[in-house]
Design a protein that fits this description.
Number of helices: 12
CATH class of the largest domain: Mainly Alpha
Number of strands: 0
CATH topology of the largest domain: Growth Hormone, Chain: A
Largest sheet: none
Oligomer: single chain
Strand content: under 5%
Number of domains: 2
Structural class: mainly alpha
Length: about 400
């Protein structure tokens, strides 16, 4: 049986890795937004440079997730973090637009390696009886990176500009790599059956994979929408820069605070995946509806709070469900494919809302997002099945339980 202390010794560096990728994504994005004119980036160039990080993740996360199953999660985590450090150092030398674009692409590629491998390691280290708890903590640290990245970037920019931000990321990646090398156990590569293309298609179309991934895509898409559009709405309401950023902070902190609780309740059987993900997405929809129907200073923050609670409930339960229905020998590939779904939601949500807002209004667009969240919630309530959880189960050394 896994003791509480055993996984803690291994997952600490993984939490920092999650924080690093979130800080890298949002901290640099915020810093670039503040200094894009200074380095010669127009609006189109700025958008392209921002997108490169996500493009690399969309393309490479399934690849590196599968690689971690073949060579082990630890080498992929440590190697990815060292690569993240190396490409970040390039940004301390020059901030020419081409160099910044290469740095963003390289950071996204490196994060594509250590992010799904870290998720797989969390699943294997936590043991079946504590998967939700540790995914909750892992997601909480990621949310802190989303919230703290822009704030840390704002502090570093006056001191040293973009090079200071990239230097901080390089240092963070190096610390995480060293800590992971020392503390993450060398989990053995598990024997895997030979998979055909037909097997892969079947695995990624199974109900136990598709529905949690769709739920994650919907919640992450909502997060991406609200991070971008709540400050815009707050600014239109005259709340100023501080008030606009406070809305994002409420969203991220609520997400961070709720995830460990939701994961722990899931492990204890107090909150099933079906109930928790349905309620979470309905909370996201409620937040969007509130601010769409009655935009104002109070409803902006209420929407951020409701959505943050909803997203924080959905995330650890969906990841724990994926871990429970996936054989341990292909956890890396499953987590990589699931994170691909999240990235598509993260990119598609803002695009959809932006297109609808351009054709109609922002409140209408938020209403469309709410409707989609309700549809996914209703589908999950019908499709998701409970996963048997054996009390006191051992860590995932072999095959995990499968769901019907």
């Amino acid at each position: 049986m896994t003791t509480a202390g055993a996984p803690l010794r291994g997952v600490g560096p993984l939490y920092l890795a999650g924080f690093t990728t979130a800080f890298g994504a949002h901290g640099v994005a915020a810093a670039l937004g503040a200094r894009s004119d200074d380095i010669g980036l127009g609006l189109l160039g700025f958008g392209v440079v921002l997108a490169l990080y996500d493009i690399a993740e969309v393309l490479l996360k399934p690849v590196f997730g599968a690689l971690s199953d073949r060579v082990g999660v630890k080498p992929v985590i440590v190697g990815g973090l060292l690569a993240f450090t190396a490409v970040s150092l390039l940004g301390t030398v020059t901030v020419a637009p081409v160099a910044v674009a290469l740095v963003r692409l390289g950071q996204g590629a490196a994060a594509s390696a250590f992010s799904p491998a870290s998720s797989a390691a969390v699943a294997r280290l936590s043991g079946a009886e504590a998967t939700g708890r540790y995914f909750g903590r892992y997601g909480s640290w990621k949310s802190l990176g989303y919230a703290g990245g822009p704030l840390l970037g704002a502090v570093l920019l006056p001191a040293g500009g973009l090079p200071a931000v990239f230097a901080a990321l390089a240092l963070l990646g190096l610390i995480a790599a060293g800590w992971a090398y020392v503390r993450v156990p060398g989990l053995p590569v598990l024997p895997r059956p030979r998979y055909t293309v037909a097997d892969l298609v079947r695995q990624v179309t199974e109900r136990g994979f598709v529905m949690p991934t769709l739920v994650l895509a919907a919640s992450t898409g909502a997060f991406g929408v609200l991070v971008g559009f709540l400050p815009r709405l707050a600014g239109d309401l005259g709340l100023g820069t501080l008030g606009s950023m406070a809305a994002v902070t409420v969203l991220a902190l609520a997400t961070s605070a709720v995830q460990p609780v939701a994961g722990r309740w899931g492990d204890a059987g107090r909150l099933s995946t079906r109930t928790g993900t349905t309620a979470g997405l309905l909370a996201v929809a409620a937040g969007a509806v509130v601010v769409a129907l009655a935009p104002g200073a109070v409803t902006v923050y209420l929407a951020a709070l409701l959505a943050g609670v909803g997203i924080g409930t959905v995330t650890p339960l969906a990841f724990a469900h994926l871990a429970a229905v996936t054989p341990a020998e292909r956890l890396g590939r499953t987590m990589g494919n699931a994170e691909l779904g999240r990235e598509l939601g993260d990119a598609g949500g803002p695009l959809l809302v932006g297109a609808v807002a351009s054709a109609a209004t922002l409140p209408v667009a938020l209403g469309v997002m709410a409707a989609l969240a309700v549809v996914v919630a209703g589908t999950g309530a019908v499709v998701l099945r409970p996963v048997p959880r054996a009390a006191g189960a051992a860590p995932r050394a072999g095959r995990a339980a499968t769901a019907a």
